[in-house]
Amino acid sequence: MAIIGWHHTGDPGRFDEDGYLYYAGRKPEKELIKSGGENVYPAEVERAILDLPEVTAACVIGVSDQKYGKSVISVVELEPGKELGAEAAAQAVADRIASVKKPRLVDFVEALPCTDSGEVDREQVRASRG
Questions:
Q1: Mind listing the domains of the chain with CATH numbers?
Q2: pLDDT tens digits, one per residue of 45-90
């Protein structure tokens, strides 16, 4: 039985040489972290962190948390030679958007992993943070 038609999700995918469609993950703006009953969109938190002059890249993910269901964490890449404390980064988010959306943990890395297209590889970041 063939299924005809389309179901538009807005999510990225790719076709292989045989015409099979492969799901490539969610767009950051469509991901949702439910933390303590609050809806937190990673892209919103990332924009707030990227406003900081010391930051070159950021990736926000949700990780399991017994108390909140999911906790918001941010993995941040800084400009070479720049410094930024975890509390200062979290507070900067709270100053720009709702404070309940600030990361509970800010982790700094030398370089965030990227996909072939140059975007931050959210799945690889998520896998490395459990």
A1: 28-129 (3.30.300.30)
A2: 999 999 999 999 999 999 999 999 999 999 999 999 999 999 999 9
Taking CA atoms, 83 is separated from 46, 59, 78, 87, 103, in Å, by 18, 18, 7, 12, 18
* Six-digit token string for 62: 């949700």
The encoded tokens of residue 127 equal 């896998």
pLDDT of residue 117: 83
Q: Encoding tokens for residue 57? A: 């890249």
